[in-house]
Specification:
The complex is a heterodimer. By secondary structure, chain A is mainly alpha-helical. Chain A has one domain. Chain A has nine helices and no strands. Chain A starts with a helix and ends with a helix. In chain B, helix 6 runs antiparallel to helix 7. The longest helix of chain B has 21 residues. Chain B folds into two domains: 101 residues, Rna Polymerase Sigma Factor, Chain: A (Orthogonal Bundle), CATH 1.10.1740; 57 residues, Arc Repressor Mutant, subunit A. The radius of gyration of chain B is 17 Å and the shape is globular. The chains are: A mainly alpha, B mainly alpha. The interface between A and B is large, with 30 and 56 residues.
Chain lengths: 211, 183
């Protein structure tokens, strides 16, 4: 087939461009992944009663993890549109990380020095990051599936953005069962969990996002 | 931008094509094909026979992904990113490492007076590949794209809804691109 014939073929009956609608796939991915994720937390560690949320710092966890979910999702959508600027989502993610780090340090400094390691490690420092990574897997599948609607040209970075969004959602859901109230704990171990999910996305992204 | 003229010529055709103007879309793709040839040729110096194949698969990719161009941004930037991605993909498929530095321009550049480069012949026959698609997809593409039926007519002939027909055409072209990318 000659190139001119191909052009004729592509243009013939092409109609208006159909929107990519990746946000629908992202929403559908979240809706499908969420029950599985919540059930895993419920079965694994049980849910924190809503009345205890102020003690367990659940709102702060929602806010931090939710910002990462939002920032990662926005970055993913920008990276999927060649030529679109990524400054805003990157600044959002960087700003949130920096703010959380400062809050984590400030929270630690308020404690007596003898109690620092207890405060930072809590009871679940070893399981929390792994649990967030584990929970993020179904969400990551949804995010990558949505990203395939787009045209990412930096596959590793796009995979990382999908991983961050998935890790954010994983952390939101993990917060439903996590009773660690210390902000230092949140700054350390939730961040590590979301970083692991980001890494996972960066590792598998290039293979799954090719087009 | 390195070349405002190209953007100025392409953008109106591209946007009209996006709204469904077939003739404008064909003109936009022709303009793009010339540019792609001029862009790929010096960067595929070791593989001159593959240039036209790459032009064709990039056109296919551009068509399938055109909705991902943000209309508020220059289309030539979008085009450049897509072309560069396809070129990198070919290097990867051909087992060549990295991308030469000459790729780092912001815009697609062509010799100022040429307006593009003549088409050479493609080695790979997309028409033959089209024939290997599953029957439903192949038939949908042939009715709409080769025989020129409207989507309504083609859907009626195949006894399917217009939506299903559009999905089949899109999936067929997508499959074509995947076949090309995996060879």
């Amino acid at each position: 087939m000659k190139t001119d014939e191909l052009i004729g073929l592509l243009a013939k009956g092409a109609g208006p461009a159909e929107p990519a609608h990746e946000e629908r796939r992202m929403a559908l991915g979240v809706v499908l992944a969420l029950p599985v994720m919540v059930a895993a937390v419920w079965a694994g560690i049980g849910l924190v009663p809503v009345a205890l949320w102020p003690v367990s710092g659940t709102f702060a966890k929602f806010l931090y993890a939710g910002m990462m979910l939002f920032g990662g999702g926005l970055l993913l959508r920008r990276l999927g549109r060649p030529g679109a600027a990524t400054g805003l989502p990157l600044a959002l993610i960087g700003g949130t990380l920096a703010a959380m780090a400062m809050i984590g340090v400030a929270d630690l400094l308020r404690q007596p020095e003898a109690g620092w390691s207890m405060h930072a490690l809590g009871k679940s420092a070893t399981t929390c990051p792994a649990a967030i990574l584990f929970l993020s897997v179904p969400a990551l599948a949804g995010m990558l599936w949505a990203a395939r609607q787009l045209a990412p040209t930096q596959l590793r970075l796009t995979g990382a953005a999908a991983g961050l969004a998935a890790g954010g959602l994983g952390a939101v859901v993990y917060a439903l069962g996590c009773d660690e109230g210390a902000l230092t704990f949140l700054a350390l171990w939730y961040s590590l969990g979301m970083a692991l999910a980001t890494l996972l996305g960066a590792v598998i992204g290039p293979r799954l996002l090719r087009w | 931008m390195a070349d405002e003229g190209f953007e100025a010529r392409l953008a109106p055709l591209w946007h009209a094509g996006r709204e469904g103007d077939e003739a404008a879309y064909r003109a936009a793709l022709s303009l793009i094909a010339l540019r792609l040839r001029a862009y790929f040729r010096p960067r595929m110096a070791g593989l001159p026979d593959d240039v036209e194949d790459l032009v064709q698969e990039t056109l296919l990719a551009i068509h399938l992904k055109r909705a991902t161009h943000d209309p508020a941004l220059p289309v030539s930037n979008w085009l450049h990113a897509v072309a560069r991605y396809r070129l990198t993909d070919v290097y990867r498929r051909r087992g060549r490492r990295g991308v030469p530095e000459t790729l780092d321009g912001v815009d697609i550049e062509a010799p100022p007076d040429s307006g593009g480069v003549e088409a050479s012949s493609a080695r790979r026959d997309l028409g033959r590949l089209l024939g290997t698609l599953p029957d439903g997809q192949r038939q949908a593409i042939e009715l709409v794209k080769v025989e020129g039926y409207s989507t309504e007519e083609a859907a009626a002939r195949m006894g399917i809804t217009v939506t299903t027909l559009k999905v089949r055409v899109h999936r067929g072209l997508q499959r074509l691109m995947t076949m090309v990318g995996n060879e």
